[in-house]
Structures are given as C-alpha cells and as structure tokens.
Amino acid sequence: MCAYKPRIALVGGGPASLTVGNLLHKHNIPFTIFELRPQPTEEDLAKPVGMLDLHEESGLAALEACGLSKEFHSHTGVCSESQIIANKEGDVIYTDDGGVATRPEISRNSLTKILLDRLPPDSVKWEHKLISASRITSSSSGDMEIELDFDKHGKHTFDFVIGADGTWSRVRNLLTDTKPSYAGWQLITVTIRDVTVKYPEFAQYIGTGSFMCLGQRHGVLSQRGLQDSARIYVCLTTADEHFGDKLGLNNGTPAEAINKLLNDNALLGQFGPKVKDLVRIACDEETKDNPDAKLGIMPLYMLPIDHSWEHKTGATVIGDAAHVMCPWAAEGVNLAMHDALDLSQAIIKASETVPEDAASFQRRLDVLVEEFERAMAERAKEKAEETYNNGQVMFSSEDGATAMAEWMTSMMAMVMAQQAEAGEANVKVMPE
C-alpha cells in the first residue's frame, strides 16, 4: 500500500455507500460518508420498513466480500420467499412456498445495521445536507478537486467523490445533465404491526412472504416485516405526476384517504371486499401509529434504460444515483451493492499501485473508474429492461394477476429445470 492516502467522500448513507465504506475500511483506505438523515437509534433500526431480497451474484457477493455473510443470515427469516398472487376480486390464483428460491430477504433497517456496525463511528457524518458539488482547482497544488457544500457544515474538498445520493443526486450533476422522469405510477405505503395477533385472518391471507393483488392496472402488494408487520403497498397507474395533490390525498391522514381510494372505480373501487378491507385496516393502523402523519403518495421515477455518461475525473455515481428504476424486479439494492463492490475494487487497486501524490492517484483511478462505469451501465441496462418488462406484465392490462401468475409459473418451471440439470451434472462428475 502506498503512503498516499486519497481524500474520498461518499454522499448518501444507504446500502451502496455503506458497502463501499466497509470494503475501503478493510484495506485501510480513509473515507468519509455524508448522510442527510440523523443517526438512527437501535429503536429506529428495529422499526418495520421494506424488505430486500439479495441475489447471489450481487448483494450477497458484496456482503461476502465485506465478511458479513454470517451477520446477514442471522437477520433473515422475517419474510419468507413464498409468493401469493390474487386477482382484483381477491381470489388467490397462484401460490408457491419459495422452495426453489435462492434470494433470502432482509429488512432494509437490518441491512443498514450490520453494515454500520463494522464502520468506525467517526466515518459517517450525519445530518449533512449536500447543497452542491463542483470542480475547483486547488490553490496550493493546482490539482483538480471536488468541492462539496454542506451549507451550515461548510465546504470540503476531496480527490474523489462517490454519489450514492439517490434519485435526485446532486453529485450526478458533475457527470451529466440527464434527470429522472416520471414512470407512470404512484405508491402509497402503510403498515400493520403485530398483524398475526391483531388480524390472524389477514395474516393467513397474505402469507409469510410476498403477496400481490393486481387488476385494472393497479395493485395492492404486501410483504411481511419486522415486528410481525405487514407492509402494504398500494400502487396506482396514472399519467398524472401530481396525482396525489390534485385528488387531495396528500393533505390528510391515511385513514382520511380511505374513502377516496376505495370508492372511486378508477382507483380501487372495483376491487373485492377482502382486498379493500386489507387496505382499510392498514390505513387505520398507520394513522393510529402516526396520528399526525399525512398519507404521502410517492411518484415513481426512472432514468433512461440506456443511461450512461462520458467519464469525468474526480467523481462517479452508484445505485439509484446512476440508474434509478422502478421496484418491479427487486434489483435496486442488488445493483447498488454490485456497483459498490466493483467500484471499491477499483479504488483499492488504484491505491496499491500509484506513486505518492494526488494527481497520479487520480490518473490511475480514471482508467479503472471508466472501466467500472462502462460495465455498470451495461449491467444496469439489462436490469432496467427486465424491470420495465415486469412492470408491463403487472400493470399494462386489466388482468395483471393472470398475466403475472402465468409468468411466475413459467419462471418457476425454468428454475426447477435448471436445478434438475445442475443436479444431474453433479452426479455425472462424482467419482465412483
């Protein structure tokens, strides 16, 4: 390892940034993570949030490189890999127990916890809001630097900045003028805690893993989570980016929004009574848990499927900052952690081989990061196409449930055939 210690900043404190931090820390490469949110407490990290299924070639590979596989598996089991699909009347038309699945689920909060626990406490600067990122010339060395403006926390300069700051990344502005566009969906998220005790019938209905009820280009989806919770997602297809404001749904509590959601035939009015009851209960429970909270409808955004940029010295972006897409293929966190793994390897390699000065480090890193960005764009394009196609299956017809059930049946058959073929190959190569 050379004596020169590059000044590296990561903007954003999600899984991608924390993964990079873990991998750099293992190689004694200094870094600083800047995160907008306050530091989470143990109580915060125990709260129900979305579940993430990690894939062997990406999310799980990154955790293995961090040395966190054991910790990861200790946090799985909250949400099974089973799947249930129902039509808009609420009738279940497809189930599987997840028996051939290989993508274990972990809570986003649990993943954050295991990644944070391995980092030096002073490596993350909480409540730092990035106002702008710009390129400047160092007054002392004449080298190019990246200046980050954190408003009340001042301006700081770095040799290399990694933007892991999400959909509306400010670091991305250093690389490209391309902005995300509205994807055509609005997402409402509400939670039922202690669902097995409070509502055993609905706990059985939605199962121990993932549930989706699809129809009329809308959906009611669910995942089981921490605190024996059911995280309920209402997904509405609409061309109106400002749908929530125009219908007044953003102005009231979840409980106050129920009538508009469930009685309008253009929304969930024609869905079956059991599905409506599930949404009603979830909205009521969310309001009980958070009496002052507004409903909050989140428009979904995406970058172009083939999004890329010409490499520029001193900065790059990963995760949603590089390739935000809709959640229909469960690839977001996996792509982000794959990005983190590959980018960390580039930084580690550059740090091991360059002479002892910033300019040489940047020249070496430029070559490696440009290769990384090219590979990341190709990988992201493939997953963005998959995500788009899944969204079309789920929401482009009046009967998305049947389309999705047929797709799941074919996918499960393909996986089982691949596993059987792999098993036969293993038998053939075993010594007699």
From TrEMBL:
InterPro entries membership: FAD-bd (IPR002938), FAD/NAD-bd_sf (IPR036188)
Entry-linked Pfam families: FAD_binding_3 (PF01494)
Domain FAD-binding, first and last residues per copy: 8-235, 317-349
Keywords: Coiled coil, FAD, Flavoprotein, Monooxygenase, Oxidoreductase
UniProt feature coiled coil, ranges: 358-385
GO MF term (any one): monooxygenase activity
PANTHER family linked: FAD DEPENDENT OXIDOREDUCTASE DOMAIN-CONTAINING PROTEIN, MONOOXYGENASE ASQM-RELATED
Protein name: Salicylate hydroxylase
Organism encoding this protein: Exophiala viscosa
